[in-house]
Amino acid sequence: MGSYPSGLEFLRGIAEGMVPPPSMLQTLPMQLLRVESGLVEFEARPDRQHLNPRGMVHGGFAATALDSCTGCAVQTQLAAGSSCSTIELNVKMMRPIQAGMVLRAIGTTLNLSRRLGVAEGRLVDEAGKLYAHATATFMIQRD
């Protein structure tokens, strides 16, 4: 193992409060709840600062939550010192999101090769109703 923890160890450190969360989580109110190899789950709570001109949560909120959960799912399967960067994010919005909703952003790794990771993400409410779905491709940078 290199000087950095594995992706799984790093993300578990964030979930357990041992590692500071990334600054993006100050903009996007999300909390890492579950971390397993190839699977992460965030709680996401959009509020009034995330509204579009029509009073619904901006689609960028869902896209960012899905980019985060898919990227973290891939990161859980990377060795110490390795990282990933988004190449492509394909998001499908299923229904409008309202401020104050409690959502889950669930990311799952679908495939991991030497250079690419592919994952899917789902943004669901507490009853499991789907609000947005994404597939994402990541470039893997290895030491």
Q: How much of the residues is beta strand, in percent?
A: 35-45%
Helix-residue proportion: 10-25%
According to CATH, the homologous superfamily is: Hotdog Thioesterase
The ordered H/E elements are HHEEHEEEE
CATH architecture annotation: Roll
Query: pLDDT below 50 for ≥5 consecutive residues: which ranges?
Result: none
Q: State the separation between the terminal residues, measured CA to CA.
A: 11 Å
Biggest beta-sheet profile:
6 strands, antiparallel
CATH class categorisation: Alpha Beta
- Any idea what the shape is? globular
Strand order of the largest sheet: 1-2-4-5-6-3
Task: Look at the structure and give the mean pLDDT.
Answer: 94
Summarize the model shown:
With 143 residues, this protein is of the alpha+beta class. 21% of the residues lie in helices and 39% in strands. The protein has helices at 7-15, 24-27, 59-75; strands at 30-36, 39-44, 83-93, 103-112, 116-125, 130-141.
